[in-house]
Amino acid sequence: MIITKKSLPRRTVLRGLGSAVALPLLDSMVPALTALERTSAASKPRLGVVYVPHGAVMSNWTPPSEGRGFEFKRILQPVAKFRDRLTIVSGLDHAPAAQLPGDPAGGHGRITGAFLTGVHAKPTEGADFEAGKSVDQIAADRLGQRTQLASLELGIGLPEFGGACDAGFSCAYISTLCWSTPTSPLPMESRPRAVFERLFGDGTSTDPGARQTRLNEDRSILDAVSEKVKRLRKDLGSRDLAKLDEYFSAVRDVERRILRAEADVETELPVVDRPAAGVPASFEDYVKVMFDMQVLAYQADLTRVITFLMTPELTAQTYPEIGVPDPHHALSHHENNPESLEKLTKVGQYHATLLSYYLEKLDGIEDGEGSLLDQAMILYGSGMSNSNLHNIQNLPILLAGQGGGRLRGGQHIRCADETPLTNLFMTLLNKLDVPVESFGDSTGHLAEVSHL
Amino acid sequence: MIGSFMDRGRLAGILGVVFLLSLSSPSRLMANPQQDGAVTATSVDDPSGYRDVVRRYCAGCHNDRLRTGNLSLASVSVANVGEHADVWERVLDKLQTQSMPPPGRPRPDSDTYDRFAGWLEVALDEASSANPNPGRPTAHRLNRLEYVNAIRDLLDLNIDGEGLLPADDIAFGFDNNADILTVAPGMLERYMQTARTISRLALGDPAIQADTVRYAVSSLLTQDERMGEEFPFGARGGIAIQHHFPRDGEYFIRLRLRGNGGRNEPQEIDVRLDDERVALLRVGRWPTAEDKNAVPAGALDLRTNRSSDDSLEVRLPIRAGEHRLSVSFQKRTSVTEGVAPSRLPIWTFSTGRGFVERMALDSVEIDGPYATNAFVDGNSDEVGELASRRRIFSCYPEFSEEEESCVDEILRRLLRRAFRRPATDLDVAVALGFYREGRAGRTFDAGIQRGLESIIVDPEFLFRLERDPVDVLPATAYRLSDLELASRLSFFIWSSIPDDELFSVAVAGRLHEPVVLEEQVRRMLIDERSQVLVRSFGAQWLHLRRMRTVTPDVNAFPAFDDNLRTDLVRETELFLENELRNDESVVNLLTADYTFVNERLARHYGLSGVYGPRFRRVEWDDARRRGLLGHGSILTVTSLATRTSPVVRGKWILENILGTPPPPPPPDVPDLPEPVRGASSRSVRERLEEHRANPVCSNCHARMDPLGFALEHFDAVGQWREVTDGNVPIDPSGVLPNGTAFGGLPELRDVLVGRKKAFVTTVSEKLLTYALGRGLEYFDQPAVRRIVREAEADEYRWSALVLGVTRSMPFRMRRAEP
Predict the structure, then answer these.
(1) B28-77 pLDDT per residue, tens
(2) Both A146 and A97 in a single domain?
């Protein structure tokens, strides 16, 4: 069935970084799509993960009471205005991140490696790292079928230095949360410009004709590359071939994307200024532009799965702008010093302020029958609770958004003791119509699912 | 060395104390002198005698039943060491360091150790020569540095690698490890994008649109002084940028400020292009009573107080190509240039203590090109004189009939350089197809641009591929072709593609000749491009890259800012480069009586008489800071945020100087508890002594801690001190496990120099790892020994080591696919 293009294309310019200019209503542009399903009012759930390192001062995170009438503690105060679309889930444990007998000391590597994979990361500082396929990637297998990019992985302040990042654990574990297979960590992109180009290409025109030309050019390059790889296969050994096969499968990915993009070529894209090359000097501007990119990606429906590492574990990020000049990781070993706990609380609150910027933006964009925030399921939290001890019990976990009516929101749920975090993942996957039999150490779905 | 092929991590913890005692190898330095006097040397030079030694001293634990340390010597024969070279290399290591049998067990006398080790070494080396195993590095994707350098050498174009490509992972200490240079999903798209960007920049594509590039200045950079030699005299703060301007045209330069936002003082900002002033901007004013009433100084919101920089914009025509843009404040006072004698910690500005940071530069944005006909003598078709265009266009057709032959010439040359081999007709045909696609209905330049794009996204550019010859038997060693050798050489010494000379020697089939090889290696070392050995090999070996991320505690080290961070790294780089350029002995790294400092660093080190930002050579009068172990960079990367760590420093020396890394700590060992604030402070030394009382810990810590103690006079940012934080006088003495006592760093340095072979072996191993792009295996040990042995006659000069690597069997050969 063909739908004629009748709605008025809207163009809006998103200027500058971290600006609060509302984005256009992409809905009005949707009829330009050719496929009926995408124009139907059917909701398009998005899965997002926003990770913050070094746990939280739990006494300032966890609401004292459960249910609907809970009271926000200091750290989450900045997102209180979204109360009816938030679910605070307390009491989740993450046993896969536990230190096993024989494990090296590196708690942060283990915790990041396990967070979305539900698997105990193999202790190694070498190239033989191994964890598990992460929950976002399982979701992306399904949700990504309809979008140009199956998923997007973003991060800020990722480590880039010699040696292991944490005693006994490769940097791979610290610098990403996402694994497409147990042995393929997905690198996270930290440069706003590169994210933008990934989403919209480096063409400066969003004109359909120019985009089609660009796609044709990409295709002929890909064809040549495929031909070359085929020719090289003949005279290379098996390990070299494995390497080239990675390259070849990357070719397939891009081809697939081009096909998808061609179907979308008539779609009006929001006209946006590219973020400047280079990164903003301030942490706040940096985080905000990365959130802007995520909003754009969801808005243009280029992907429905995004994972964002706001800063990695072990980060030495300082926050002089809020009166915390101490490096975050050093500070996180607070030894119950009241001054340190106060500073950590401030950092937690600051991160939540940035989250609220994101939620606000999402809420400002109509999507389906509500806003993008209504369609989204954003998991926000950390892989540990008390950072002084690297506790992996009772993690600080927050769900934002309503997943297109799949999450009720507006409550604080306390799970039974020793409920695995992976049970929540099971439940979320179910709600995204990507059911799995089990995940990591899961023991089933979240018992409190009826409340969600 | 041995540790590189034994998986200590996995084994650790399976067994308890016994295991640790057996596996951990005290360093080459710290041989245990304990001997069983009753045993005399086995009087043999035939293997059977050594069989008795093994049976008597080793097989009690290392037999098929016990397999202590996962090792049995029961079924390996001294008669044929080549058959189990992996096992015998481990044995050799234990013999050389006399680290087995464990303390308390009977052991042979020193002479037996030496003779057995000597014999075994020769036997292993002979077995290796008879049956060489050079290993088989995997297809190697160019890492970011190699990619950037290859583009520079291919097109005479400097690109912003960090902006265009993701960072590479690291294995075996280096980011050029072939196994780990994988192609992640999304990477190809990145390469396609980058190829497009590069080909546009290289040709100066007229369709290039205005773009904004932001250069942010770290907020931890203090901008109170002249930042470097690239700034005018009398300047303070700011940034100097090397920027590629894609076309002739008009560009906007926009400045953003932070700090007091101009409320407290008028300032002049000096903007220079290639050292010539292009603008002098005035900003700020003296505060008025109104200001004072409105905003208490300490409460300024630094992030929003930007009103004064709205007008800080310069618009000017700039020629295509690379230019240096510098932006700095003019010092208004007549105070002598130099580091301010004292100042508040850099972070106090926003902590509500009433101090507001001086106005400083936050970022510079370059936006353009606009009005590409900005030059009077130009017109909009002229892209300007780009170095890259000169490099690409060895010919330029005046008439359309000339195009065909010129294209062929251009593409053939580009292909040859990019693929590091002569171009085939098929290569040219493929690239020509892209040329035609681009040329159709457009310009000659557009065609070349498209052809270039296809070349730099080709797997043969992006990967270093080595191909087995057709006639080689499976799993046998074969010699690399001269062209493959040329690539190995250039990526080792230059982290880039071969230049024309190296290439033509290889094409002529002469590179494998020893004289020619040596000539080329020496030429390449003298060439400026070898500087990358310092920045890449040196910085990774010594962990200098970690300086980017270390964060000394702001309360304990308020003076540590990004200026010092940069200077500390610069010192070590200049030192390494000087050593390499002068072809000194690598041992000199430990003992050199000079270094390079500027005023800030001199102040940090307590030197006087050094002024300004320029680095210069200074000689050390005393032995305190000689050699690498006195470098603030190394002392800082081996410290914790708040204090020194003798353990980390000791471990660093074991790993990087002596080549005998300790195994990882056994599981579930708690960290050394930090002292509770306010409690009576004990020195780190005392607390470590408690730690060593635990036998599980003592074996390794007895090796690490004393080395670290020798460096205790240097605090966590490398400044000299007489007392610790708790006011305890420093005691830099220590006793090594073999009983050698030293009174401080100078004496320890003498001990290290006395065992220089261990140090040279470590450097050789690191260098070979880097050169091959793979982790070393037991079968590489004969090659390492040979490099060290042959360099000895040449006093272990850098060139001798580098030559040794390039002559070595694993560098020149490859193992065929099994």
Answers:
(1) 444 343 443 333 444 345 677 788 888 888 888 888 888 887 788 888 87
(2) yes
Q: Which ipTM did the prediction report? A: 0.78
Q: Which of A240, A266, A292 is the last residue of a domain?
A: A266
- Say if the Cβ atoms of A99 and B667 lie within 8 Å: yes
Tell me if A55 is assigned to some domain.
yes
Of B480, B481, B485, B479, which Cα lies nearest the Cα of B502?
B485
Residue A400 lies in a domain: yes
Rounded to whole angstroms, the Cα distance separating A383 from B146 reads 36
Give A237's contacts in chain B (Cβ within 8 Å).
136, 468, 816-817
- Is it the case that residue B405 has pLDDT exceeding 90? yes
Q: Is the dihedral of CA A332, A335, A336, A342 positive or negative?
A: negative
Q: Is residue A8 part of a domain?
A: no
Q: Check CB contact under 8 Å for A168 and B664.
A: yes
Give the torsion through C-alpha atoms of A215, A220, A222, A225, to 10 deg: -160
Inter-chain residue contact A103 with B667, CB threshold 8 Å: yes
Residue B149 confidence (pLDDT): 97
Domain containing A104: what range? 26-200+268-451
Assigned domain for A194 exists: yes
CA B786/CA B469 separation, integer angstroms: 27
Do A325 and B351 lie within an 8 Å CB cutoff? Answer: yes
Give me the phi and psi of B280, to 5 degrees please. Answer: -130, 110
Phi first, then psi: give them for residue B478, nearest 5 degrees.
Answer: -135, 160
Using alpha carbons, select from A158, A159, A140 the residue that is nearest to residue A150: A140
Chain A nearest-CA distance from B186, in A, is 7
B195 and B254 in a single domain? The answer is no
CB contact under 8 A, A250 and B188: yes
Residue numbers of the domain that contains B570: 531-537+545-634
Separation CA B807–CA B478 (nearest Å): 14
pLDDT band for position B323 (cuts 50, 70, 90):
very high
Q: Which residue, among A68, A244, A276, has the nearest Cα to B366 in the 3D structure?
A: A276
Cβ <8 Å between A318 and B453: no
Rounded distance, CA B626 to CA B648, Å?
Answer: 20
Residues of B in contact with A278 (CB under 8 A): 163, 213-216
Helix (H, G, I), strand (E, B) or coil at A323: coil
Highest mean pLDDT among A250-259, A334-343, B237-246, B489-498: B489-498
A-chain residue closest to B138, CA distance:
A240
Which of residues A248, A266, A284 is at a domain's end? A266
**Considering CB atoms only, which of A220, A239, A249 is closest to B138?**
A239
Q: What residue of B is the nearest CA neighbor of A186?
A: B184
Task: From chain A, pick out residues whose CB is under 8 angstroms from the CB of B218.
Answer: 281
Three-point CA angle A418, A424, A430, nearest 5°: 145
Question: Distance, in angstroms, between A337 CA and closest chain B CA?
Answer: 9
B153 plus B272 within the same structural domain: no
Among A120-124, B127-131, B184-188, B681-685, whose mean pLDDT is lowest? Answer: B681-685
* Smallest CA–CA distance from A318 into chain B, residue: B551
Token pair in block for residue A287: 């985080």
Query: Which residue in the set A123, A193, A282 is minimally distant from B303, CB to CB?
Result: A282
* Same domain? A280 vs A244: no
Instruction: Give yes or no: residues B222 and B295 share one domain.
Output: yes
**Average pLDDT over every residue of B679-702:** 71
Mean pLDDT taken over chain B:
83
Q: Are residues B350 and A318, on separate chains, in Cβ contact within 8 Å? A: no
Smallest CA–CA distance from B213 into chain A, residue: A277
Q: Which residues of A touch B351 (CB under 8 A)?
A: 320, 323, 325
The token pair that represents B717 in the structure block: 């940012």
**Lookup: tokens for B446:** 């557009």
Q: Give the three-state DSSP class for B773.
A: coil
- Mutate which: B164, B192, B220, vs A, most A CBs within 10 A: B192
